[in-house]
Specification:
This protein has 213 residues and is α+β, with helices and mostly antiparallel strands. It contains four helices and nine strands, in the order ααβαβββββββαβ. Strands 1, 2, 3, 4, 5, 6, 7, 8 and 9 form a nine-stranded antiparallel sheet that branches. Strand 7 and strand 8 form a beta hairpin. The protein is elongated and about 65 Å long. The two termini are 36 Å apart. 31% of the residues are buried.
Length: 213
């Protein structure tokens, strides 16, 4: 196993080391998938990295909307072509949500949420590529989402609530030149089952190695 594989696994392990056995079992499955993806991502000839800004709007029935306002952050993604239509991808995102007042009867109580989704998945480009990916795409990702909610009370000590959830995100986007825009429905199955946890918009710059001729 490469040193990069070991480093990636060590990073994710540290993020969820304090969670329960169920989450650790999920981690094992994700790490196994990442082990299979990494050689393709690192050594593939048609690989590129994209860096993007993220906007997240909490779902109205997810529970997140009680503790969080609009979320802003950034993401790093690695994408590797696996054929004329399909690419594999791995994404790590950081999101900080605006402060919210979860209880109307105690306005001094505040909550602030941070999330770090780590996901792997696939992209499908309907248009056959020649050298590099381009055009409209459909995506599907799964992974882990460590979240931290910081509660501040008027008369009681502050409280940090940490949880790692199993995440799924179907999406749709468009890659035009070096610019990529996308929209995803982000689910946190542990926290809100199949209710949308937040609606995610991403605008990114792709560092493409080669262009179609």
């Amino acid at each position: 196993m490469s040193n990069l594989n070991k480093l990636l696994k060590k990073l994710v392990l540290r993020l969820i080391e304090k969670n329960n056995n169920k989450m650790k079992n999920i981690l094992v499955m994700i790490c196994c998938l990442a082990t299979l993806l990494t050689p393709e991502i690192v050594f593939g000839q048609k690989t590129f990295i994209s860096i993007g800004g993220e906007l997240a709007l909490p779902g109205s029935s997810s529970g997140l909307n009680m503790n969080a306002g609009t979320g802003f952050g950034g993401s790093l993604r690695v994408e590797s072509s696996w054929g004329k239509h399909v690419s594999g991808l791995a994404t790590i995102t950081y999101l900080g949500f605006a402060q919210a007042h979860p209880y109307s009867n105690t306005p001094a109580t505040t909550a602030r949420v941070k999330a770090i989704p780590i996901q792997v998945g696939l992209k499908y480009y309907p248009k056959e590529r020649k050298i590099t990916s381009k055009g409209i795409f459909i995506s599907a990702e799964l992974g882990l989402m460590p979240t931290t909610t910081h509660f501040t009370y008027e008369a009681n000590p502050d409280l940090n609530f940490k949880e790692t959830g199993f995440s799924v995100a179907p999406g749709l986007g468009y890659l035009l030149g070096n610019l990529e825009s996308s929209f995803r429905l982000q689910y946190n199955l542990t926290a809100s089952a199949f209710k949308v946890y937040y609606y995610n918009f991403r605008l990114a710059y792709a560092f493409l190695k080669r262009k179609d001729k």
